[in-house]
């Protein structure tokens, strides 16, 4: 045998590694679809179950509770680095599917007609409707699974693409996720009119997530095969002891702290805004639900094109740290324009899509430069838990601000103060992006260098 022969593995095949990306991209698209599927239904939920703005904010934010207060994304990341991709991925995608089904059940007639759990939910916290409580439980379980499954998928991308087209792969993966979001804003307003009743929109979303569990199982077979090729002794394949120093080392890394704070502020100005956006356009521009849903979906659709494009540019030319600064600045300007002008929401949503491509396409691959691959699950998990603090607090705060600054039942709802809050988050993100770039000159991680030069 020629010992100089370099053994090729599955990940050396371009077709196989991009096919893997499509598989996990499907799981991610289902995840994002469900996350957003109920946003265009805000007014329907008010009509059917009497949801207030705050109730709706609570429903959105409960997704983040397991990740912030139980540190599930951190534990998920640690479990991932210890148990490996297959076991952790299966477990958390299953949680996500179960949570989605429970949410749909909570909105269904089956449940309202004294179904399982109805009597119990009616007996606790009587100030809230039993439907809201069951849906909150479902979204809680969904959030518990969804965030860690994104961490798992991120590690899968690093596993197959590190040293190759990493930033492009992250960009395409995010593009697939955003197709899920865009589809939600397009399909939900259509599905609520279905003959089988408005809850069809939620059941469809829940079955989409459930089907992604099957797709993940297919991915697991390839993952196993790759591990057998790369590490013949599979028994030790991805096992890794967790040390508390894994977290303390991260906390001592200033670049990591700045990127985490940027992640917190930037995403808090995007996702919570996006969840309210259909209702915002409907109220500010006096549109129908379908029209406003179509404006909302322009942002994720824009990112489908721009995120892979910026990912490709970051791989080739670098400049990730600089692009994060531009992205935060554009985000701030768009929110100010939403607050104080009547500029075309179509144009502004596309511009927001550019901002929402610049930062993710540069930020996530940059983390892989700061952290050892063996600890990438812990690092992403930590970032997600911090980020979820914002994804918990800001939808809730948006709902509270709306209820506080508007008279109940009076239309149109005024969103100005909420938009100012989102713009302020954009400014904070801009400051953290500047600090990150300055720190990079000292740390030498080379965030502004092309992907294959580090
Ligand atoms: C919401 C979720 N925690 C998140 O941050 N999603 C990111 C993608 C994260 C990819 C991490 N490698 C997004 O931009 O959607």
UniProtKB/TrEMBL annotation:
Reaction catalyzed: L-lysyl-L-alanine(out) = L-lysyl-L-alanine(in); L-histidyl-L-alpha-amino acid(out) = L-histidyl-L-alpha-amino acid(in); L-lysyl-L-lysine(out) = L-lysyl-L-lysine(in); L-alpha-aminoacyl-L-histidine(out) = L-alpha-aminoacyl-L-histidine(in)
Keyword set, alphabetical order: Lysosome, Membrane, Transmembrane, Transmembrane helix, Transport
Cellular localisation: Lysosome membrane
Entry-linked Gene3D superfamilies: MFS general substrate transporter like domains
Matching InterPro entries: MFS, MFS_dom, MFS_trans_sf, MFSD1
GO cellular component, one term: lysosomal membrane
Gene Ontology MF, one: transmembrane transporter activity
Domain of life: Bacteria
Transmembrane segments: 15-35, 55-78, 90-108, 136-154, 166-188, 200-222, 256-275, 295-314, 321-340, 346-364, 376-395, 415-436
Main localization, broad class: membrane
Domain annotation Major facilitator superfamily (MFS) profile: ranges: 17-441
UniProt key word Membrane: yes
Membrane topology listed for this record: Multi-pass membrane protein
Oligomer and partners: Homodimer. Interacts with lysosomal protein GLMP (via lumenal domain); the interaction starts while both proteins are still in the endoplasmic reticulum and is required for stabilization of MFSD1 in lysosomes but has no direct effect on its targeting to lysosomes or transporter activity.
Xref: PANTHER family: MAJOR FACILITATOR SUPERFAMILY DOMAIN-CONTAINING PROTEIN 1
Function as written in the Swiss-Prot or TrEMBL entry: Lysosomal dipeptide uniporter that selectively exports lysine, arginine or histidine-containing dipeptides with a net positive charge from the lysosome lumen into the cytosol. Could play a role in a specific type of protein O-glycosylation indirectly regulating macrophages migration and tissue invasion. Also essential for liver homeostasis.
Family: Belongs to the major facilitator superfamily.
Name of the protein in its database record: Lysosomal dipeptide transporter MFSD1
Annotated organism of origin: Labilibaculum antarcticum
């Amino acid at each position: 045998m020629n010992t100089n022969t370099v053994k090729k593995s599955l990940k050396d095949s371009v077709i196989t590694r991009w096919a893997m990306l499509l598989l996990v991209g499907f799981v991610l698209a289902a995840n994002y679809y469900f996350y957003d599927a109920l946003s265009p239904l805000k007014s329907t939920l008010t009509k059917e179950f009497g949801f207030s703005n705050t109730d709706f904010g609570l429903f959105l934010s409960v997704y983040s509770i397991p990740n912030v207060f139980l540190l599930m994304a951190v534990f998920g990341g640690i479990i991932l680095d210890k148990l490996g991709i297959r076991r952790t991925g299966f477990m958390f995608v299953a949680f996500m599917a179960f949570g989605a089904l429970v949410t749909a059940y909570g909105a269904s007639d089956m449940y309202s007609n004294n179904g399982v759990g109805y009597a119990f939910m009616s007996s606790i916290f009587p100030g809230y409707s039993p439907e809201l409580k069951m849906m909150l439980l479902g979204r809680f379980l969904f959030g518990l699974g969804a965030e860690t499954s994104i961490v798992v998928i991120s590690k899968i991308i690093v596993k197959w693409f590190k040293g190759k087209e990493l930033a492009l792969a992250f960009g395409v993966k995010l593009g697939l996720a955003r197709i899920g979001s865009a589809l939600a804003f397009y399909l939900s307003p259509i599905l609520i009119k279905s003959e089988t009743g408005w809850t069809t929109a939620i059941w469809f979303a829940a079955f989409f997530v459930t089907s992604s569990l099957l797709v993940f199982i297919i991915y697991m077979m390839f993952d196993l095969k790759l591990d057998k090729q790369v590490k013949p002794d599979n028994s030790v394949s991805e096992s890794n002891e967790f040390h508390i120093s894994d977290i303390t080392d991260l906390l001592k890394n200033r670049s990591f702290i700045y990127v985490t704070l940027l992640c917190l502020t930037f995403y808090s100005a995007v996702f919570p805004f996006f969840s309210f956006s259909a209702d915002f356009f409907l109220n500010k521009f006096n549109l129908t639900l379908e029209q406003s849903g179509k404006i909302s979906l322009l942002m994720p659709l824009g990112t489908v094109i721009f995120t892979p494009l910026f990912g490709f540019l970051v791989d080739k030319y670098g400049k990730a740290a600089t692009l994060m600064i531009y992205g935060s600045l554009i985000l701030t300007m768009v929110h100010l324009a939403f607050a104080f002008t009547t500029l075309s929401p179509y144009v502004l949503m596309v511009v927001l899509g550019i901002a929402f491509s610049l930062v993710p396409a540069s930020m996530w691959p940059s983390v892989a430069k700061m952290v050892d691959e063996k600890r990438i699950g812990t690092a992403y998990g930590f970032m997600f838990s911090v980020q979820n603090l914002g994804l918990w607090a800001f939808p809730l705060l948006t709902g509270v601000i709306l209820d506080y600054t508007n008279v109940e039942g009076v239309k149109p709802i005024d969103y100005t103060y909420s938009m100012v809050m989102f713009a302020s988050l954009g400014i904070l993100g801009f400051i953290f992006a500047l600090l990150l770039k300055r720190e990079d000159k000292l740390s030498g991680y080379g965030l502004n260098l092309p992907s294959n030069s580090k």
